[in-house]
Each structure stands twice: as structure tokens, then as C-alpha cells.
Design brief:
The protein is an alpha+beta fold and 461 residues long. It folds into three domains: 207 residues, Alpha-Beta Complex (Naphthalene 1,2-dioxygenase Alpha Subunit, Chain A, domain 1), CATH 3.90.380; 103 residues, Rieske Iron-sulfur Protein, CATH 2.102.10; 88 residues, no CATH class. The protein has 15 helices and 18 strands. The strands form five sheets. It has a six-stranded mixed beta sheet with strand order 13-14-15-16-12-17. The chain has a four-stranded antiparallel beta sheet with strand order 5-4-3-6, with no helix packed on it. α10 packs across α11 and α14 runs antiparallel to α15. The radius of gyration is 24 Å and the shape is globular. The two termini are 15 Å apart. 40% of the residues are buried.
Amino acid sequence: MANNPVSALETVPHRITNPELIPAERYFDPAFFELEKEKLWPHVWQMACRLEEIPEVGDYVEYSIFEKSVIVVNTKTGVKAFHNACRHRGVRLATGPGNCKTAGFICPFHGWRWNPEGKNTFVFGKQVFNEELLDRAEIDLKPCRVEFWAGCAFINFDDSAPSLIESLGPVADRLNARNADKLKMDWWYATVLPTNWKLAMEAFQEGYHTMKTHPQLNTLSALGNPYGNDAEGLTPNKGITAKETVRINIEFMKRLSAGMGGMVHETEIAAIERLADMEVPDDPVQATMMFYGAANDIVTKDGLARGAPMFDVNKVMQEQPFHAVEFMFPHFFLLPMIAAMSSYRIRPLTPETCLFEIWSLVLRPEDEEYDTPKEPTILPYNSDQFPEIPQQDYANLPRQQLGLHAGDFTHMRLSHSHEGMISNYQRLIDGYIAGLDPTLLAKAQHAVNSGFESPIVDIGF
């Protein structure tokens, strides 16, 4: 732990000295990648699985990050996590999902066994070992720290790190109010991107790219360009009547649903379409505000009528303002719009590749039958099976990774008002590499765990 944050930060290679400039080497330098691997990932809370992946006693999944592997298992006494290695000779016990209720975990090498609670139940030929080597504390599976939030299990390799809730900060309240713990999977996709993990995340930390990358959304903005120069930042499309804003907003929601899945679920679209003939004031801005209030209300009522664990969307939006993208450091996103959400998880593989996963999530009635995915559908990053919006982002990212190697490109240049989320979390990475106090790092996460298009802020160091 560093006693002097300033001097410790000065030791970080390619560190951020100007919060509006991010050194390009951070996205490809192997030495910097190794520092992240050593100083960052062993000390942070990582989303290991959705709890709905392991609904029954004995269900388990494997979560891996670099060479480390953890088993997350549903036991009779709750969900637990264990380091995924035989206590005899280190063989990995679990690969992928499964159920160990009947047989437990069996080492394929020498047949040692453990029950779902991690207790050793069988050692072949005990008599050939010195007794002290078979002490219960030595041969039971080694636990890994696990805590729970938003319907997910999070693991941390650092037993002294602040708790998950201490690290999350206010973002937890915003998403708790939206029943994030009750969301269920519609689908789950994954791909390997030829892109540094941080670069992959940053495409989803600002909306500045929407105009060019996602023109289908920009042209369906009833209020026009949000980067306009008027005082409110809204430039209503010329010639659009108030009544036409309702049609445009419905089309926008439908296009967002088709393009992003969970951000607007098909059940929400079915309810919203019933507003097509609603009466609105003559002013397009007022009409748009009225439409969204009515959309929130009709989705709330429709969800409750179907038996979904719905919240009052309008009430929650007033009490807990949210962002269309909510980020949880270091690698997890939830993207709310009305009640459903999309979700991302990004894991580094090499300095210039990462595993990118996408979920479509919905508040589904508890008694509604659904074939919940056990594993992601893995696609090439350029597959046309991805929804429209990820396809467009995935087309840019490999080109961006290549462009970082162009001659004399030294720094990213960030908007202080719209791309601050990128600067904020990147500076927190510097704090981990510098070995700053864990309490200081957790407090910094409260500022970093913010939403879409946040400004550059003071994170405390």
C-alpha cells in the first residue's frame, strides 16, 4: 500500500497527467497489460455469473480471468465460490457449467472428490500419504470471496478489499430501485474482439459517436441533435409537429429494441405502440415529455398485469435519476431505458484482444417458463447475428485498435463534458497500479461508477 499517493502515481508508466488526454500505449503496451494483470484484476470485484445460471442446488459455473479460475456453485447453504484446482496435484476440476449435486467434483487425474460445499469426501489410498498432508483445512477446496448484487455473483481474489457494496457506491441504489436483482436473461451472446479490453468498453461510455456510428437512432430523434448550441442542448427537428413526435418516438423505441435487445424489450414495445393516437400539447418538446411519461406508465401497468416484478417506472425515475448506460468498475455494465436492460461484461485476454459478452434482460413473471441460457452463443465479432447496434460498434473497434499504432498517434483527446467517464475510470486504474490505499480506491469508485456521458470529475487523487 502506498503511503504517498502523489509519489506512487508518478511511478505508473503511461499514467494520465492531463485528464483530457489518454496515452495510446495504455491500449497495447504488453508491460502495461502485465501491470493491470498484477495490480488491478486480483483486487477488484468481478461479475462472475448471473445467479439464474445456477438456479438448482449443485448447479455450478466456471469463471476465469487470465490463468485464474473459480467455481461458483449453488449449495444447500447458499452460493459459494472456490478456487478451481484439485488440492492434490492442481488439476482443474470444472470446465464450463454443470451440476455436481449427485457426484460432487471429481478430479479426473487421481479421483479425489469434493461435495458442492467444497468438503473433501474421498482420497484414493489415504494410507500412502503422511497424515498431516490430509488435514481437513488443507484438502478442502480453497474458498474464493463471493458477494451478491443485481442478481449476480461477484468474486474478489483479495480478502482484504472493501466489500462489494462499499465499492459500488450510489450506482447500487439507482439500479436497486429498478429491481435489477429480478432481471432474467432473454439471450446471451459473446465474441472475441481484436481490441484491448479498455477500448472495447469506451465505445459504450459516451453517446458522442451516435450521430455517425448509429445514424438510424440519430435520425429518429424527435428533438434533434443533443449536441446543439441552444441553452437546453435540444434542437427540435424543423417541420416536425407535436403529433408527429409521438410517431417518431415510437419508431425510435422500436429501432432501439431491434438494435439492442434489452434496452427496450419487445413486451415494452407492444405496450408503447398502444400510445400511437395519444393526444399531446402543440409544443414538440412538451409532447415528447408527455409521451415518455405515458410510455413509462403503460409499461408499468402492462408488466404488473402480466405478473412481472415491475416497479413504478415514473416514480423511480423521479426519485432515482439514472443514465442509459450505468458502469460498474472494472468491467460490468447495465443499460436501463424503461424496465428491461441490456448488460455487458468485458474481460481482457491479451493486450489487444478481449472477451465481450452481451445480455438482453427483462422482468419476467416468476411462473413464466423460459429456456434460460446456460452458456453464451459465441459468434465471430463481425457476425450479422448480433443486433444492429453491437454490429456497428464492433465494426469500429478493430479499426480503432489498428489506428492506435499509426505513426505519431500519442493520445486520445476527450471531451471534458461528454467523454469524462473514460478519463475517470482510466485514472482509477492508475490508482490500482500505484498501489493506493484500498479505502481511497473504493471511494474513487463511487465517482467512477457513474453513467453515460459523465463529465470528467475529481476521483480523489
